[in-house]
Amino acid sequence: MRLLIAADIFPPESGGPATYAVTLANELVKQNDDVVIVSLNPKSDIKAIQCPVLAVKSNFKPLRYWQYYCLLKQCGRDVDVIYAMGPVNAGLPAWCAARKLGKKFIVKVVGDYAWEQGVARFAVEDLIDDFQKKHNYGFWVESLRWVEKMVAKKADSVIVPCKYLARMVENWGVNDERIKVIYNEVKYNVAEPIKHDNEKWLVTVGRLMPWKGMGVLIQVISNLSKQFPESRWKLKIIGDGPEMDKMKKKVLDNNLIDVVDLVGNLSNDKTLTYIASADVFILNSAYEGLSHVIVEAHNQGVPVIASDAGGNPEIVGSENLFEYNNKEEIEEKILQNSLAGRLKSMPHRFSTHMINDTRIILGKLCAN
Fold it and tell me: Does residue 216 sit in the same domain as residue 69?
């Protein structure tokens, strides 16, 4: 099989789609498939990849997208399938290239890009489920919504990482027979925890975006520290993003420098070390598709609690779910789980389950 992966984010950028593109490519190469990646990141790190990676050179956005399309068209001539890692930044140029070359086209949808950009840049306040039902959010948001829906409808197949997203994409007007649910799974690496015998660590990982609920977690850890000073609660926030300055100000304004640690971006190995060190791992997000970090936390055997949003209920037990940003519920779940101790690790199926299921879909398209 000959495959072109169109990646919009790529290491050293963080995030599930970047990790997924590298892992998928490396595993397919091991199975003797021909894979090439075209990256929209001019600073792409090719050290961790075992296949050719071509990246755009320009940082000037209009030129960068033109270079991206040209690279996709150039590399796409000799492949069977073009697989885009998202419906907008990667998906639109990749679909245009696939259409021009007469190639099969697959897109992966891990969220609603129009909603994410609307919240981050265009003052959208609605949560993702309400966003699906409403319109008239302004020209830019509605343009992004039109692009992602159009690309998904035109794709030969749409891959999503959870049933929640499958329902969302079907509501976009995509035929359910072309929507394939393949759960993300992560490589099982046992990490050595950091010793913190006299402290209790609440650990969270994520890009610092408005819907990630980090501000509420800072309020929660402040309350816990006041209620239970003998436990010496600490909040470790792993990740970076547009909300970093806002979070720093919140920590300073509430005199929580000794309680909240804004760690920033870390390598995957170091991130796993922090996850393995958690007395409780938490994800307070208004939206998740299929969270890599929740699976990684399960793999490390630590107690996991999460908001009941998106795909979280598909991988977290109902007793460990809470309403997004509900401080009282969050505190209750933290206290319950801090006494639970480490759990039995989940089985590792990443390289034999997700990869093989994806390969089957790609193979069927090649055969048609």
Answer: no
Mind listing the pLDDT tens digit for each residue in 244-289?
A: 999 999 999 999 999 999 999 998 889 999 999 999 999 999 988 8
List b or e across 79-104, with b for residues whose CB sees 16 or more CB atoms inside 10 angstroms.
Answer: bbbbbbbbbbbbbbbbbebbeebebb
Q: How far apart are CA 99 and CA 154, in angstroms?
A: 10
Question: pLDDT (tens digit, 9 = 90+) per residue, 304-347?
Answer: 999 999 999 999 989 999 999 999 999 999 999 987 665 545 54
Q: How many independent structural domains does the chain possess?
A: 2
Domain co-membership, 123 together with 259: no
Residue type, 178: R
Report d(CA 257, CA 250) in Å as an integer: 10
CATH of the domain at 8: 3.40.50.2000
Enclosing domain of residue 294 = 200-338
Measured CA to CA in angstroms, residue 29 lies from 36, 71, 100, 296 at distances of 10, 21, 26, 24
Both 16 and 59 in one domain: the answer is yes
The answer to whether residue 265 is domain-embedded is yes
Q: How far is CA 24 from the centre of its chain?
A: 15
155: tokens are 């794709």
Quote the pTM value: 0.85
Is residue 110 included in any domain, yes or no? Answer: yes
Token reading at 83: 């697989």
State whether 118 and 242 are in the same domain: no
Q: What does the pLDDT look like over 44-87, one tens digit per residue?
A: 888 878 899 999 999 898 999 999 999 999 999 999 999 999 99
Average pLDDT over residues 295-310: 92
DSSP code of residue 230: G
Provide the pLDDT for residue 219: 97
- Residue 343 domain-assigned? no
Classify residue 32 by its DSSP letter.
T
Whether cis (ω within 30° of 0) applies to the bond prior to 12 is yes
Do residue 229 and residue 355 come from a single domain? no
Per-residue pLDDT tens digits for 162-199: 999 999 999 999 999 999 999 876 667 788 999 998 89
